[in-house]
Design goal:
- With 533 residues, the chain is an alpha+beta fold.
- The protein contains 12 helices and 22 strands.
- Helix 3 packs parallel to helix 6.
Amino acid sequence: MLRLNNLPLKLGYSDEDLQKIVANTLKINPSEILSAVLAKRSVDARKGVQFIASVDLNVKNEAQILRKCAKNKNLQKITPFVMPIYPKRKTAHPPVIIGCGPAGLFAADVLAQAGLCPILLERGKPVSERQKSVAAYHSTGVLDPESNVQFGEGGAGTFSDGKLNTGTKSPQIRQVLQTFVDCGAPDEILWQAKPHIGTDKLAECIPTLRRRIEQNGGQVLFGAKCIGFTAQNGQIVSVEYVQGGVEKSIRTDAAIFAVGHSARDVFAMFQNKSMAMEQKAFSLGVRIEHRQRDIDKMCYGTAASHPALGAASYKLAAHLPDGRGVYTFCMCPGGVVQAAASEAETVVTNGMSCFARDAENANSALLVGISPADFGSDDVLAGVALQRKIEHDAFLAGGSTGKAPVTLLEDFLKNQQPRCFGDVQPSYPLGTVLEKPESCLPKFICDALRTALPKLDSSLHGFLRNDAVLTAPETRSSSPVRVLRNAETLESVSVRGLYPCGEGAGYAGGIVSAAVDGIRCAERIIQRISDDL
């Protein structure tokens, strides 16, 4: 198979056009092309608006075409991707996975394919019941601490934009994307430069993946909250959990802790057991909302209404003189600001959009990077304490009702009390209160945002729109701790057979990277079992 990179395509091209363009580029007859399939496609808005694509080709006389196009650096021979097949293995005690987010699900999927019958513990509920819990929270303000945006089947990603792009490089990325497609996601995620599923499609894919795990011998226990583990001579021997008010224990030689960045009780349990952990840098800030049609114009100009483009997205960053970084993160085109609390008397924001990305507003996290030096304590959980303080202060600033403090961009830059809204109406579902972000965020965070915003506008002119809405606080961008593990075996440096995994353990930063880490941990368990045979 051949791959042709950096192929420019007009916005309105057809499949027939694609084959002709490839033939013209390679100076071959179209009849020599057996198939031409997109491998990747991105939007290029530097000079006009067009697509830039990579195309996978099956051709007649491949060797001859390679010789003829030897000087074309954009043409290369590739090996087609094939999903891995895991050898069947047996073990005396099934592996246990704690957490049913991307890391846990993909780890369980691999282990189930290998015949190891994993047991997956999830403190929350299945997606269908979880959706009801979230809807009830939005309508009443009453939070279910075990079934919410953070906890439940699919993890925090299920109630997000479902972005599947990642800055990491790994051969397992394609495995993750293909698994989602096999479970019902649209094929286009295999070639989009910034693939996304949307919370509506994820809510359909995740239960399908779980059923596949069960069909391969795995077991998923909902409402099963891990409360501890037991180790003997430095080796894990069991995992303890509570389900239906009854404490239970599972004998195991391998446990993957894929608990997500909001499982603060698990971090505390690790600390009490003297597990090796360290403070980890993360980010704090707000969500910023514009009207999506305004973002489209900023990004695409007169081409903004073209149906081939869809809702525009952006990614902005600024480096400040004091060394801090300010950047946008988890940008949700055509989405809403999500109420994402997992503890009582707190306000937490996140972003969410459906597959169509057709809501009125665009929103993104606008974050300031912080380091352990900002935590105010050497305690390994000081970052968690800082998050909790900010989230509770936001709850108080919102009138102790669950409403979120918001301000307008113009008022924020002038450091004045926010006034009435303009064209941009806030989408946070529990309601909002006009209040300065300093009501919950540290002053140095707000000062950094004020310094950075004009710099961001220089990268995306119009971003500094006076009536853009800032909703506070965004605190859960990543885990504030890292559970230390062996770089080769991926086991905890404190307990053999215990695998800290995914975003909560400090080794991932999104759906795909978390899923990849889950796959890697599962493959290490398979390898360990193979070595013991």
